[in-house]
Design brief:
By secondary structure, the protein is of the alpha/beta class. It has 15 helices and 14 strands.
């Protein structure tokens, strides 16, 4: 098949949507499909266009078997509220002519990845122009998140944004999302059940597996064998409730057998560094290359998955899959009734959001009970293998995407190969 992916975030971005869009495109290309991607230059999670991508603003490159077309966008150094909206709109505008040109290529499927709901109209139109399946994949509900976290405000503005979102969603042939609760929310927004697909994020269970020896990171960071490592690895963003980690570490300074490691990059760097100042039991690490992901996650005795209460069930943290695949227990800050809470309750400890003493107590309880850590870690690995393995998830999507072509709205002249 010819598959066109429209995703503002794309490889070589190491985390978040860019990681998954990149892995999906490369997997499809490895199966013999022709894959094109229209994307922005890499900028996440540093919120800065990567070196070597500043100029020219439009470019075309071959990346691991995928034909990638880049369009520029405005990247604010401190995203939030109106700035984030303008950021997404800038890519929607600059990428529109690039996308419409792809109709001449006559793809079989046009997959638009949200957030960047601003891109949805052009993704839908491109599919209609060439009779392709119009598929929208919702990684998080950006409108709901923006208002619940007060990034955007105003009852009338919210009503208008949700009305526009609902109209867009209902135009697509297929709309997918990454968790059962998010699929339920699509139904709540008025979509027919036949149009909805569950398309979870995945993990390479062969590439990330339980280490049977001490991680090399322990020696590099000077962590002793008898010390327990509580690790957070992911984007340092506002939805992560990251400041609860140094707050918990401050409560546990008397426990010399517990070390907190926070690995990543993002807009919260300055605040996080300030919160960790003077804490001898916290170490900060920059983002690590993909090749060292198994070593990094295997360093943990306990994974920390903090999340703001306002974002729960509007986004399922993508970092969860790697944590589970590493075969280590997870401590998550969320309510027990959320989907994240239900998953973690079988392979870790769920504590109330914003309750720092409960977070610290959960780390202590797992530190003091190695046998329970091993048992919960085994449950985590088993869940990853049955629910988040990469190959079956992508194969299911591909099977769902194979359908008769829609009649084209316009019969374009075929582009020469």
């Amino acid at each position: 098949m010819k598959i066109l992916i429209y995703s503002a975030n794309y490889a070589p971005e190491p985390t978040g949507i860019g990681k998954y869009s990149g892995e999906m495109a490369e997997w499809l290309a490895s199966k013999g499909h022709e894959v094109r991607v229209v994307a922005a230059p890499p900028y996440y999670p540093n919120w800065k266009v990567a070196e070597g991508y500043q100029w020219p603003p439009y470019r075309r490159e071959w990346l691991n078997g995928v034909d990638v077309w880049r369009a520029p966008l405005w990247v604010p150094s401190q995203p939030g509220g109106v700035k984030r909206v303008l950021h997404l709109l800038s890519f929607a505008l600059t990428s529109a002519p690039v996308m419409l040109r792809q109709a001449l290529w006559s793809p079989d499927v046009v997959l638009t990845v949200a957030p960047a709901m601003a891109c949805a109209p052009v993704g839908w139109l491109t599919a209609r122009l060439c009779g392709a399946t119009a598929w929208l994949h919702v990684q998080d509900f950006e409108v709901d998140v923006a208002f619940q976290m007060n990034l955007l405000k105003g009852r009338k503005l919210k009503a208008l944004a949700l009305w526009l979102e609902r109209g867009l969603l209902r135009r697509f042939d297929k709309v997918s999302s990454i968790s059962s609760r998010m699929v339920e929310k699509l139904r709540f927004k008025g979509l027919d059940t036949d149009a909805i697909e569950l398309f979870p994020n995945w993990v390479d269970t062969a590439g990330v597996n339980p280490l049977q020896r001490p991680s090399s990171f322990r020696a590099e960071l000077g962590i002793r064998d008898e010390q327990t490592v509580a690790l957070f690895s992911g984007t340092w963003g506002s939805k992560q409730n990251l400041l609860s980690i140094p707050a918990a570490a401050r409560l546990l300074q008397h426990r010399e057998d517990i070390v907190f490691v926070i690995c990543g990059e993002g807009v919260m760097r300055t605040e996080l560094e300030a919160a960790c100042a003077g804490l001898g039991n916290v170490q900060l690490l920059p983002l690590q290359p993909k090749e060292r992901l198994c070593e990094l996650l295997g360093m943990a005795d306990v994974h920390l998955l903090t999340q703001s209460a306002e974002a729960e069930d509007l986004v399922l943290p993508s970092k969860l899959t790697g944590m589970l695949s590493s075969g280590r227990p997870v401590v998550a800050t969320c309510r027990t009734g959320t989907e994240l809470g239900q998953v973690v309750s079988h392979c870790g400890v769920v504590v109330a959001p914003d309750c720092v003493p409960s977070l610290a107590a959960a780390v202590v309880s797992l530190t003091d009970d190695p046998e329970r850590r091993r048992e919960l870690g085994g449950f985590a690995r088993a869940y990853a293998e049955t629910s988040f393995a990469k190959e079956p998830i992508l194969a299911r999507w591909l099977n769902a995407a194979v359908r008769p072509r829609m009649p084209a709205t316009v019969l374009p002249e075929q582009e020469a190969n």
